[in-house]
Structures are given as C-alpha cells and as structure tokens.
Here is the input.
Amino acid sequence: MSAVITATGLGKRYKSALALDDVSFQIEPGRIVGLIGPNGAGKTTALKAILGLTDFSGELNVLGFDPRKQRDQLMGEVCFIADVAVLPRWIRVGEVVDFVAHVHPRFDRAKCEAFLARTKLTPDQRVRQMSKGMIVQLHLALVMAIDARLLILDEPTLGLDILYRKQFYQNLLEDYFDENKTIIVTTHQVEEVEHILTDLMFIRDGRIVLDADMDAVGERFIEVMVNADKADTARALKPLDERQVFGKSIFLFDGVGRDVLEPLGEIRRPSISDLFVATMKGTYA
Amino acid sequence: MKTFYWLVKREFWEHRGGFFWAPVVTGGIFLLLNIMGIITAEVLGASHGIEIGASGGLKQVIAQMDAGDMSKVGLALDVAMYSAMGLLVVVLGFVVFFYCVGALYDDRRDRSILFWKSLPISDASTVLSKVVSATVLAPLIAVVVGIVVGMLQLLIVAITLSFHGIDVWQLLLLAHPFKLMFNLIGYIPLYVLWALPAVGWLLLCSAWARYKPIRWAVALPLTTGLLISWFGIMGLFNLPAAWFWRHIVQRSLLSVFPGSGSLFAGMPHRVSSLDGLHALDLGSTYQLLGSPELWLGVVVGAALLAGAIWFRRWRDDS
Here is the structure.
C-alpha cells in the first residue's frame, strides 16, 4: 500500500524563527505515530501543513492530495482534534451532531449517538456548560463516527484528568483504530501514549531527530543499570545519557550491541520519556 | 446545496439573539409603547371629560366618507404598519453591521475555527453562507416580524376605537397588508445588491484583522475621509472630499441599513405629498437598479468578498 503522507523538504519560516527546516518523512497506513518534541519545536506547524492550514515550502502529499491546493477534498478523508476546547461554545450537543451529520458524507450518526450514550452528555447541553473532559468526549464521539483514513490529534488530552485521558486513548484503540486508519498524535504526556504507538518521531528545532518504528527503537536504544565499579567502562562506550539512582548509574546507549552491554549490568528498554529527555538535552539552555 | 442550507442554519443557531430576538423584542417594545400611549390618552381624556365619538359624530363621518377619503384612511393605516417596520429596519441595520464584523473573527478568537476547518467545507461556502445570513435571512425574519407587529398595531387601534362604540373593522379592510408584505419582501433582493460593498468590507476586516476588526472597519474609512477633508480645508491636493464621504465611507459602513440606497443614492423623484408611500413600492425602489452606483458597489463588494475568502483560507493565527 502507498504511503498516507509523503513529505519532502518541508520548510516553514515565521518572522522570528524557523519552524520547519527541510523536513522529510513518510507515514504508512495502519500506523499510530507519535510526533514528540519540546514546545516550539515545530510539531503544530507540521500538523498544520498536513492539514492545509498553513503555507510552506517543499513537497507534501497527503492521501494523494496537495493540502495547499486540494484542502476541501482532503478534509473529507482527514479528521483532526486540534486540542481540547475548540468546539464553539454556543453550540448544543444535538446541533453539532445534526450539523456534522449533514455536511460530512462519511459521518455515521448512529455510531456517534452510540458513543454519546456512554457519556453523560444530553442533546440540549451547550458546550459552554461542559467541563474540558466532557468537551473532549463530545469531540471524540464526533470524530470516531467519521470514517476517515487519517486522524490527527494535537495535544488532545491537555488539561484533562487521568480518568478522561485513559478513557480517551482506550476508546480510540478499541472503537476506532484499524489497519486502514492512520493516527498521528502529538502530546507531552508521552508515558500515556507510548504503549499504543507503532512509530516514533522526535522533532527538535524544526528538524526530525528520530524517526523509527517502536521495534527498531527497542533494539537501538538500551538502558543499563551499572554498579559504580563498572561505571567508567560504561562511560567509555559513549552513552547518550547518564543518571544516578540509589548509588547506581543508569546509562542510555544508542546503537551499542546488547552483547557488549549485558556484562555491565541489568539491561532494560528505556521509556520514551527518558529517551526524549536524553535526546532533547540542552533544548532550552 | 444541502451543505449550504446547514451552514446558514448554523448561523441562525449562533445568532438567534440578533436575527430573531432583536426584532421580536423591538416589535414588542414598539407595541408596548403604543399601548401605553393609548392608555395615557384614554386616562387624560377621561379626566378632562373628553369622550371620543360620544355623540356618534365619528360614525357619521365614516358613513359619509367618499372614495378619496377612504383611500386616505387606508394610507394612514399603511403608514401605521410601516412605522413598526421603520424601527425594525434600524435595529436590523445594527444587527447586520455587528454580525458581519464578528462573523469571520469570533471563531478565530475562540479558536473554534479549527473545528469548522476540520470539516469538508470550502472557505468560499463558509463566507457566502455568512453573506446570505446577513443580507437575506436576517432581513426576512425582520420583515416577517415587522408584518406581524404592524398587524397587531392595527388591531390595537381597532380595539381601542371599538371601546368607544366605533366599528372600525370595515376600515381595516382599507389597509393593504399584502401589498405591504410584497413590497417589503420584494425589497430584500435589492438590499442584497445595495448592501454588498458594506457587507464585503466588514467581512474582509473580520477575516483579516488580528484584533478588534471593528476598529479597522470603522477607523480606516473614517480617518481617510477626515484626512481628505482636512487636506481639502487647507486647499492641498484638491481631493474630492464630498465624493469620498458619500461613495466610500457611506457605502462601506452605512449600506447595511435597508433603505439607505433609496435615501442616499438620490432617487430621481422626491415625493412630498401623502402619496409618499408609493416611494416604497417596488416600482419606485427598483429604479435604483438603473443607477451605476449600485452596480459599481456590487462589483466592489464581490472583490472585497473574494478578499475575505482568501484571508479565511490563509489567515494563520490560531
């Protein structure tokens, strides 16, 4: 199957800064891609480019469309949740379902109503009367009822409590995702998405610094817990990062063989947040 | 087409207050003031011992009216009905003005534009749905409300008189509510054309401004006009200040007020007699179609709307 997104040499400059600097990547169907980066790294700009919300230089093909010129057709196949609380505050649940049902050809009203039935939302309720968590429930119910090939989530769970956050991703996985769909998600709450991602992309200062699927990440990056006596040997292997826990040193290695590291101490798979912190060291300095 | 219908419906949902409740409340206040006036007259009349039609004199007058008089009564009744509309038209002008200024700005400010833009709707239909809401939907509602209020107004007068033993029901038949309705609804297409430059200008500001579009929308033509007048006073450049005020400032801001076309465009005939109501007949109002000013405005309005659509598509600040 052909790629869902092919980007070649994407660039975008705002007055003050370079938001995207010659970015190229490809995303295959049936993947859940985490686009992770510090604030201001260019995540949102990249998503906006994909959604045709902003102009850019370079080549970008999304589902066979050019988002700059064919945005209207593209939006029939793409859904996005920009972040929490962008639903218009005056609208009622019943109205927004009605509206989307009549303007979106791929919207399944029955499905949406089934999702809403699981929540406490009522048709007469206005968005302005809802909590952030409820707004996201509504938005997710709308989006999951649309049979889109690409779903883009930009910080979808920002400011929600843990119950809503867990439920959000659980719903996505159980009721929405399948091998024909592709999801791109950006978030700062890395630990919540790391178990559902199939692919990982780190972005820093407008550049992609890591682009790999999760299996490859597991093979490439290894964390070793080393006793003090072997710490110097470990340091000689040029670890990405070192930190101290209970008198032991934890080293993070990139591309050093398992056979080399095993004698040094206990080996484990690094969490994405540790990997992220190590990769982004010095970003704000 | 279906999408467009729902887009307009969405505008109605969002602006029920301005589109529907504003004329209804205005009409209600208008009627209330009338009733209060009538009660005042009754009370004052009673305390001064004046009894209208007590001697049956009025009845006699009515009985003796000839055809000419009858038509004057009809005219007076029509004026009574139009008077309600007059107030609604002013309110409508303000509603349309502020609606247009906010239409493409408010959703950028609260970022709900990101939701609307996640749906497969072209920016052109979004902008055009706002034009239609402003120039067709809002006036249509105002006209319907105006007609209902006008009829209630007639009814109140009739009931008051009937308390005094005067049967005026036959007089009511002299009014022309249907002609009135026809004139008012028929005026809407002309309004669309006349209001287009103002609607275009306001929507353009609404789609373009980063903050407070109303400041730009009002300040830009006003300051330019003032500057030109100022230069004029100093005798510099010899710019046509009067022309600018009339054709640029007025058209870009005041054209949203229905009837401003006939008032300002200098209609060929001015009527002073009681036949003045004929000026509101479509035959008179549509003479505006013959003025190049109207068509020039339409062209400029279309260009401004194209600009608004472009900014709606590419403005990137959310």
About this structure: The radius of gyration of chain A is 21 Å. Chain A touches chain B at residues 48, 51, 53-55, 71-73, 75-76, 78-82, 85-92, 95, 98-100, 102-105, 139 (CB under 8 Å).
